[in-house]
Amino acid sequence: MAKLATVAAIFAAFLLMSHVVEAHWTTITSVEIDEEGPRRGGSCREQLRRQDLGRCEQLLEDVARGGRRASVSERMESSESLRPCCEQLRQVQEGCRCEGIRQIVRDQQGQFRGQGSLEVARSARRLPSTCGVGPQQCEIRAAWY
């Protein structure tokens, strides 16, 4: 009878320990939050509709219209629109900046031909880096006419 009581006590102890371990494992949860994508404040399209990038548009127009009098980087740095453009870019979430810049380039494509189109694309590609914001470069393709 003592052996049966001992076996029953050991079994009860194992059963109790298994519930404790099971309770411990069931309370451990993991939550993954992705805060880097554009979903925090809505879609990029929504954010870009709300956020004005007019000074960036003006900056890229200045670059394209600058002719051969100065290099593209000199035209960007001397433009009165550079600082306000950078301020506007900082207001846009990092994951949406390139989309906003691409949208400006698409809107301007018909205005500039040949070399001007190429210079706009190069300047647009480096615009985040020029402004000191991420990402360093945007994928922008020049359209030749």
What can you tell me about this protein's structure?
By secondary structure, the chain is mostly helical. It contains 7 helices and no strands. α5 (82-90) packs across α7. The termini are far apart. 24% of the residues are buried. The model is unreliable at 23-40 (pLDDT under 50).
Shape: rod-shaped
Distance between the termini: 99 Å
Radius of gyration: 29 Å
Mean pLDDT across the residues is: 79
Main sheet specs? none
* Structure class: mainly alpha
Q: Which segments are poorly predicted (pLDDT under 50) over 5 or more consecutive residues?
A: 23-40
List the helices and strands and how they pair.
Elements lengths: L1 H26 L16 H7 L3 H12 L6 H7 L3 H9 L3 H15 L6 H17 L14
Task: Note the main attributes of this structure.
rod-shaped; mainly alpha; 145 residues; single chain
Structure summarized in a few sentences:
It contains 7 helices and no strands. It is mainly alpha-helical.
